[in-house]
Amino acid sequence: MSTASQALARVQAILQERQLGALLVSQPENRRYLSGYTAPDHGIQASSGYLLIPQEGEPWLLTDSRFTLQAEAEAAGFHLHVYRRGLLEALETVLPHLKVQVLGFEADYFLYSTHARLMELAEKLTVQLVATTNLIEELRVVKTAAELDLMRASTKLNEQVFQQVYGRIAPGRSEREIARLIENTMLELGAERPSFDTIVAFGENAAKPHAVPGERRLRPGETVLIDMGLVLHGYCSDMSRTFMLGTPDALFIERLRLVRAAQKAAIAAIRAGVTGAQVDEAARKVLSEGGYGEAFGHGLGHGVGLAVHEAPRLSPHGHAPLQAGMVVTVEPGLYLADWGGIRLENMVIVTEEGCEVLNQDTTFLDL
Length: 367
Ligand code: ZN
Ligand code: ZN
Description:
3-stranded antiparallel beta sheet; 6-stranded mixed beta sheet
């Protein structure tokens, strides 16, 4: 059974439990997860379609004529309804046909203005609306064996891109040039797209964890921080490296070793059953004892899958126990406004006994 059909069966069981007649799925990664239909949304106002999953029986894909051929090819087992005037028109036809009395929708990815119109329709059809949150996201956190293979492949390709690019980084080149080179190389090597806007930060710019690449040109002896990821077969990768061209100075080496030690401590702490907060604490402790507790402001990591940021969280607020088959980043860092920053990020698969580190590339990691 494919990942999509397994997931669909689980969603229908949940709908039964919660007595929802059907679920309207608008979130693009959820849509892809359940149907295999890959069209992305270009913003929440430009939907490529919706799934309507009834409690039992065949699911529906509602979309417009721009996507008919793609939907037919990708969403095997789905009834296709092609609408001309949008979602509401489609629901007015399909809901009575399915005899839906209680309809769930995704509160975290549904326009307020559409919701107002949906309420009017629901009243007219005497359908009760129920807001749901994280219903499908919670299924997505534990990956199937097939998904894990795709995540390994995504990480491997991301590392190939890094290996092709880092040798071409030289003094005089701008952050923006390097970011563009990375993203072009991703596409050349077969990625669908970057999984987020590539971060390239030189020198003091590396003190901003989410620096936006600008016209700043690299000077000899400066830090280079790169955070990059790509999408391959729908699955995201995410990796950060920080290095100095030529011979790094002693302070950089000392700080990089500390961040790497924090990363190793966290990786050693990861296994099914421990919480995200415990793993975060393992890394934070190393940085605090090294004198840089205040310099590590963000959480240690996040889940990755069809989305580059998803559950679970590795942070002081991550209270749920990790489960085997989750994929998370481990990305400790330190950021000093007058100096710059260091972040090292690898992805791991949580297992019963520990974890599998997906990244094979150790360039610049162990100085
Ligand atoms: Zn990252
Ligand atoms: Zn990340």
